[in-house]
Specification:
alpha+beta; Nuclear Transport Factor 2, Chain: A
């Protein structure tokens, strides 16, 4: 896909909306790469159609109409993305790493910096970008998904959404009610910490990094909830409970001993780029992106995303030297 050249005023005005459109497309599609492609396609279509736009509606609304059509077209030919917890039950720590599913199976993390919004809405934006919420959105039919994001996350009026989707207010309200019912049956509404950490949560993260880098598993598990869990896309398996997590870290996960963690921010939650030891001289290679869910002063879940192509997306170095 050709890139737009940001030079003329019209293109600059379109680019002003790239961040919020990325957040919209990411929530809809569940993939940071798919969201980038959808926004770029939206920008290209908008730039090509500027001479026909003629200001008949607000530029922002027009761009969202294009982005919605791009996303809905994309979803027609794809399966919904998910998290391992959506696909199977937890396994014991004695289970060897097994089935890996294609990248297109999984909800992916997104850098906080890719999503620009009104600072006054930052807390709402972070809550609605959490991995659990984005994964729950993927259970909704595409048009219900668009309605819920536009109405609940972006606070559009029902009449505005009806106009964008070429439907009626009654249909929009009905779709919203069905979407709310589906989400209520998921864990998307469970309270977890956003990226706005208090002092106690910052201290918790510091202890987590210290324990993980020393690979002091006894100390590490004291920072976790009794029913804490970990997942490792593209592996379909996931684990839950302190005994199984301890067993995993000291068993099949022992290769993570000696890792280093670099802090990042993903999906409005604290996260780290994990680098595992590789060869002599203190060299460390990318291994996973860890995204932590914190609840009630402890770590509730650690998402380990093993797709190392995401490291560049988050601005992380290709390796760490000694």
């Amino acid at each position: 896909m050709s890139e737009l050249t940001v030079t003329d005023p019209a293109t600059l005005e379109l680019e002003h909306y790239r961040g919020e459109l990325t957040g919209y497309c990411y929530r809809t599609l569940g993939s940071t790469y798919d969201a980038d492609d959808a926004v770029q396609e939206t920008m290209v279509r908008a730039w090509q159609g500027l001479d026909r736009f003629e200001g008949r509606s607000a530029l922002r609304s027009w761009l969202y109409r294009i982005a919605t059509n791009v996303c809905l077209d994309s979803l027609r030919s794809r399966q919904r993305r998910a998290m391992p917890m959506d696909l199977s039950s937890p396994v014991p720590s004695s289970t060897p790493p097994g089935n890996q599913l294609p990248e297109t199976t999984w909800v992916e993390p997104i850098p906080d910096g890719d999503i620009a919004g009104d600072p006054a809405e930052r807390a709402v934006a972070q809550e609605s970008i959490r991995l659990a919420f984005v994964a729950a959105l993927q259970h909704l039919p595409p048009r219900q998904r668009a309605v819920l994001i536009l109405r609940e996350v972006l606070a559009w009026q029902a009449a505005e959404v009806a106009e964008l989707l070429d439907t009626t207010v009654v249909s929009v309200n009905s779709a919203l009610q069905r979407a709310r019912t589906t989400l209520a049956a998921s864990n998307a509404s469970e309270s977890t910490s956003s990226g706005l950490l208090d002092d106690a949560e910052k201290a918790l993260l510091a202890r987590y990094v210290d324990a993980f880098e020393r690979y002091d598993i006894d100390s590490l598990v004291t920072l976790l909830h009794d029913d804490a869990s970990i997942s490792m896309p593209p592996y379909e398996m996931w684990l839950q409970g302190l005994d199984d997590l301890r067993g995993w870290y000291l068993g099949y996960g022992i290769g993570c001993r000696g890792s280093r963690l670099l802090p990042i921010a993903a999906n409005g939650m604290p996260a780290f780029g994990q680098y595992r030891p590789s060869g002599p001289g203190g060299l460390h290679e990318p291994w996973s992106l860890q995204v932590l869910e914190i609840s009630g002063g402890k770590v509730a879940h650690v998402h380990h995303f093993l797709d190392t192509t995401l490291f560049a997306k988050f601005g992380l170095p290709a390796r760490l030297d000694g």
